[in-house]
Write a structure and sequence with these properties.
about 90 residues; 434 Repressor (Amino-terminal Domain); mainly alpha; single chain
Length: about 90
């Protein structure tokens, strides 16, 4: 079985990438002043949205913190809906 690397979708990070013309996560990590590894951990759901991460995004972009939290919360809803649908298909 061949495993293919797949970058997980993340509404907050993907919106940032589009609006600030970042071609890849490394450029986005530089924009929000964190390492690419830290950003990857957030993208993959291993890190939660913390106040310091919200502040980093706010300072780098000027986005209101409410916009940052709203995008994150929408992603949580998407994730829970997707997880629920997968569980219903298994049963």
């Amino acid at each position: 079985m061949t495993r293919h690397w797949r970058k997980f979708d993340n509404l907050l990070l993907d919106t940032l990438k589009i609006e600030f013309n970042c071609d890849h996560d490394m450029a986005l990590a530089k924009l929000v002043d964190m390492t690419q590894a830290q950003l990857s951990q957030y993208r993959n759901g291993r890190y939660n949205l913390t106040p310091s991460f919200i502040l980093s995004i706010h300072e780098a972009t000027g986005w209101p913190t409410t916009r940052i939290r709203d995008l994150h919360n929408k992603q949580l809803i998407i994730n829970s809906t997707t997880k629920r649908a997968k569980n219903e298909n298994v049963q």
